[in-house]
Amino acid sequence: MPELPEVETICRQLAQRLVGCVVEEVELADTAVLLNTSKEELTSQLVGRGFTRVGRRGKFLLFLLEPGEVWVTVHLGMTGQLLLQGDDAVSHPHNRLVLRLRRGQCGTREHLVFRDMRKFGRVEVSQGGPSDRLRSLGPDAWEPDPQYDPDFLASRLEGRKAPIKSLLLDQRIVAGVGNIYADEALFRAGLSPLRPGGSLSRSELEDLCEALQSVMAKAIEARGCSISDYVDTDGRAGSMQTCLAVYGRAGQTCVRCGSTLIRCVVGGRGTTYCPVCQR
DNA sequence: CCCAAGTCCTGGTTGC
DNA sequence: TGCAACCAGGACTTGG
Question: Which residue of A44, A52, A100, A212 could cross-link A25, Cys pair, CB 3.0 to 4.6 Å?
């Protein structure tokens, strides 16, 4: 389940290892991964161009290729993986797209593999800028985004009656939060996931802001959370799953007060929280 | 058979 | 009354 920390981990790896590689060949195994992009467009825009920059916005990965400012925007969906493999790359039933690359003039061969079991991931090619889908995103729920602060959160939550958990998952409000870190941040902030978004006080908003930042920072440090399918570009798991206080722990005891953690459904999403610590 | 996930879409409701 | 904003729920996908 790639959320902001998992995508950031992948982004950092690819920024180091993908820049300087030129696309030699495109192997598309499933046209359904393409969004607003034809198979012909994918090939003609990528072959012969080189990666010059790798970035992230929310849960989206952004790749800039030159010459001609060609952008590739990737969303990993639920189970998407981006793997960087050498000549030992092998075919796999869930490989959707493979870019065969060459590093430098006569350098080594690499393969950038987009693998996705559940088929929710998407790849989009565009010129002059990344995907239009980025336009509706709120600021990243993480420190480096200067727009992200309690004031902004307050303005977006004012008057909202939907549960705060659902609003945190709305990428138009803040970007990068998924089901795992929404539950974890609400636990850290001592807030019930069921609270109407507009009912949070100023100090509660500050706590929530701080909780999101601290949980994101810790998860990035742990190189992500490997609950089900997530791995980094080398296929290695992260370690954040061992640090989770509530997600996946329904029926177990609260690490803070010892009460039994409750599971319920909020906005159609499984939600775990402590009925004593979170009010 | 149902569950999990993230995003998009739809249809119904609320509030100005 | 009309309209936009809001909210809930379903579709999509497939292995466990």
Answer: A100
How many Å does it take to go from CA A192 to C1' B12? 27
Is residue A10 within 8 A of residue A232, CB to CB? The reply is: yes
Name the nearest CA neighbour of A197 among A146, A148, A251, A161: A161
pLDDT tier for residue A225 given thresholds of 50, 70 and 90: confident
Confidence of residue A86 (pLDDT cuts 50, 70, 90): confident
**On chain B, which bases lie within 7 A of the protein's CB atoms?**
3-8, 15
How far from A236 is each of A1, A82, A216, CA to CA, in Å?
14, 11, 19
Residue A95: other Cβ atoms inside 10 A: 20
Q: What's the pLDDT tens digit per position in A172-197?
A: 999 999 999 999 999 999 999 999 99
